[in-house]
Amino acid sequence: MTLDKLKIGQSGRITSVGGEGALRLRFLDMGLIPHTTVRMQKTAPSGDPIQILIRGYELTLRLEEASEIEIEELSE
Amino acid sequence: MVFALVGNQNSGKTTLFNALTGSNQHVGNFPGVTVERKSGEVKGKKDCTIVDLPGIYSIRPYTQEEVVSTDFILNEHPDGIINIVDATNIERNLYLTLQILELKVPTVVALNMMDEVRENGGSVDVEKLSGILGVPVVPIAAAKGEGISELLEVAVETAARKVMPTVYDFCNDGGAVHRCIHAIVHLIQDHADMLGLPCRFCVTRLIEGDGDMDVRLGINQNEKELIEHCVVEMEDSTGLDRNAAMADMRYNFIENAVAESVVKSRESKEHKRSVAIDRVLTGKYTAIPVFIAVMFLVFWLTFHAVGQRMSDVLAAGIELFTQAADRGLVAYGINPVVKSLIIDGIFAGVGSVLSFLPIVVTLFFFLSILEDTGYMARIAFVMDSMLRKIGLSGRSFVPMLMGFGCSVPAIMATRTLSSDRDRKMTILLTPYMSCSAKIPIYAVFSAAFFPHHAALVMIALYVTGILVGILAALLFKSTLFRGKPVPFVMELPNYRLPSAKSVALLLWEKAKDFIERAFTIIFLGSIVIWFLQTFDSRINVVSNSADSLLAVIGRFIAPVFAPLGFNDWRVATSLISGFTAKESVISTLAVLLGTSIDSLGEVLGTLFTPLTAVSFLVFTLLYTPCVAAVAAVRRELDSAAKTLSVIISQCVIAWITALVVYTIGGILF
After folding, report:
1. What are B41's strand-pairing partners?
2. Which segments in chain B show pLDDT lower than 50?
């Protein structure tokens, strides 16, 4: 599944990072790389963008951007 | 000795910079770009300068901020780098550190926010971390001023003795990335040494494949193919593409370094507190109402309770000073034309702009609090989906909203936007938000022509401005600013109390900047307008303003407005004078019609019908921003040609919109 499909409170482990150009490099620089664990924290009132917890800090990205990141769901 | 201060956004970089330099700061731009360049003399150390580079997460050549930072380090050869690292977010911060170490410049890592780490039960084995990274590491708490003098001492020592980072091999697992990097090092070492470029940095650039590193190094086709071969082999055996493989290598190194030297704290109380605050501030049902309330409060305080009051006081002070100067000049018996230049030209022009100063400062006070506490990032988060529809990101919301108060601070506030594209587009859209200086025009006209529907007319004008702005945004999105909007992958930092010192320094800097502008560009502008008002075409002083050069220009321009229904030189002249300040539209009309502002409404009927009044209002709503706003645009866009095109396009759009309104109105009524 992709990162945007994660339910609030759920965690997942990144399996692959897509996207192109600046977006992709931004992902990598912010620490969104394979094997990293992320947790879905919340969404903005309109449902987009989303807020995730990664490497101990809060990061926001748009659904469209999050859909470029493949994850495997982690059971609690 | 020159030091570059480098670090992530939200790492406390500005706080550290302020702690090191105090108020000895100099603010400018990096050449050719609108990225702010701040430098300052270190307090208590002679000949020691710190250049505050923009907050970045990486030194790839993708954003302007990254490019100027890398260029500064490579081309201006600072004696040392102070790399600030947020210890509460150490993994992501060290990612930049690893890239900095490759630049082969004497570097010190300032491990910031150590107080928070300790309070939450964490610790960092500084010596061990220093050993792993191969550079000195100094724990500090910039906000409390802890460790600053130690940091400075270590930095000066490291730079004076030219102690280079000893570790630059982050691929120490002997794997595919390691093989690739080392193979390329062998290939290009000579090229890099000859050019005096740091070899490891060049290798990284070559592998990551961005920029023109191969050209700079003068690599031939054969070598190029060899490099590509190495990289492809690395991609094949890691199963990752080049960029991911390099990022993976760096984060692996960091994870190991952190595992060896850092005892992670439990979930920090700052983070817990932030999550709790966010339950309200970005909550599903509470976010928008809270945002509206906060904005309303900021607006009310700035444009009414505090800023406006202080502004009125200052304006009264300037008025008193002007009168005193007037009396003084009369008593001295100075030539009346010179007196007119000083009093009616310079004092009136500079004074009226200067009286905006308290509003600008108050607004920046609130903006800096919103920014430094971390709420601005949340506003962007909440508002993003709305603004994306017109091709902008959430960050642009606040500057545009400020435009309803005054375009000048609003345009200045676009500095808080991290993307150049968004910044420029926001600057171009801000003038569509009807500023408060136009309120007197709306008020006089709607009282004269629509006494029973004045509020409705006002609202309709504001909505028209916003709608035309949205249309312009959609047009920009598909023409000037085509291409993908910048990624919205953004950190939401923990809420923190801003430091009083940082806020005070920022206000001082903005005030200084504003005053400087008032006495340069506004000063010149005032003299030009005064000249046009005072003299006729034969450079004789006019006794009746109807004979002045300004009126000549007004007569010349008036036919342009014929299709809009108000072909009268007095109206055209008032619009020209509105360029100095929008309030002048009303005062000029009053002067030219030989009446006072209070009774202007009664006389306006001789010049306008209700329909042409509406057409005129629509035109004033949209035509060129005032000279102070244009000066701000000029500064932020850093281009006279672009600024001129802003003025022209605003006028053209205003003319077309007014024509549409006038034509449709003529058919309907």
Report:
1. B49
2. none
pLDDT tens digits for range B574-613: 898 888 888 788 888 887 887 777 778 888 988 999 999 9
Q: What is the pLDDT of residue B363?
A: 80
Mutation for testing the B interface, residue in A29, A30, A35, A38 having most B CBs under 10 Å: A29
Closest CA to B406 of B387, B426, B433: B433
Distance in angstroms (rounded) separating the CA atoms of residues B118 and A36: 26
pLDDT at B483: 66
Distances from the Cα of B660 to the Cαs of B566, B615, B653, B655, in angstroms?
Answer: 14, 9, 11, 9
Residue B180 contacts residue B207 (beta carbons within 8 Å): yes
DSSP sequence for B485-527: PPP--EE-PPP-PPPHHHHHHHHHHHHHHHHHHHTTHHHHHHH
CA–CA separation, B218 vs B213, rounded Å? Answer: 8
Instruction: Quote the percentage of chain A above a pLDDT of 90.
Output: 86
Domain region containing A58: 3-74
**Residues B112/B19, Cβ–Cβ less than 8 Å:** no
**pLDDT for the residue B34:** 63
Contact criterion met (CB < 8 Å) for B251 and A33: yes
Q: What is the pLDDT of residues B109-156, one digit of tens each?
A: 999 999 999 999 999 999 999 999 999 999 999 999 999 999 999 999
A67 reaches B (C-beta below 8 A)? no
Spatial distance between the Cα atoms of B538 and B548, rounded to a whole number of angstroms: 10
Element of type H or E holding A59: strand A57-61
Q: Any idea which residue has 């100027």 for tokens?
A: B68
Q: Quote the CA–CA distance of A18 and A1 in Å, as a whole number.
A: 13
Q: What pLDDT score was predicted for residue B485?
A: 67
The reported pLDDT for the residue numbered B484 is 67
Q: What mean pLDDT value characterizes chain A?
A: 93
**Please, which residues 11-50 of chain A have a Cβ atom closer than 8 Å to chain B?**
17, 22-34, 36, 41-42, 44-49
Q: What is the DSSP string of B33-57?
A: S--EEEEEEPTT-TT-EEEEPPP-S
Which amino acid is residue B562, in one-letter code? A
The model's confidence at residue A76, banded by pLDDT at 50, 70 and 90, is low
How many beta carbons lie within 10 A of that of residue B44, not counting itself?
10
Q: What is the CA radius of gyration of chain B?
A: 29
Provide the ipTM.
0.95
Task: Measure the CA–CA gap between B192 and B639, rounded to whole angstroms.
Answer: 36
Q: What is the CATH number of the domain that holds A50?
A: 2.30.30.90
Q: Are strands B123-124 and A11-17 parallel, antiparallel or unpaired?
A: unpaired
The pLDDT assigned to B272 comes to 94
Counting the structural domains of chain A, the total is: 1
Instruction: Find out whether the peptide bond into B563 is cis, omega within 30 degrees of 0.
Output: no
| Cβ proximity of B623 and B654 under 8 Å | yes
Cβ proximity of B248 and A33 under 8 Å: yes
Other CB atoms closer than 10 Å to residue B321's CB: what's the count? Answer: 12
pLDDT at site B408? 85
Q: Which pTM value belongs to this model? A: 0.85
A61: nearest CB among B88, B278, B488: B488
CA angle B292, B298, B300 (to 5 degrees): 95
Q: B492: which chain A residues are within 8 Å (Cβ-Cβ)? A: 51, 58-60
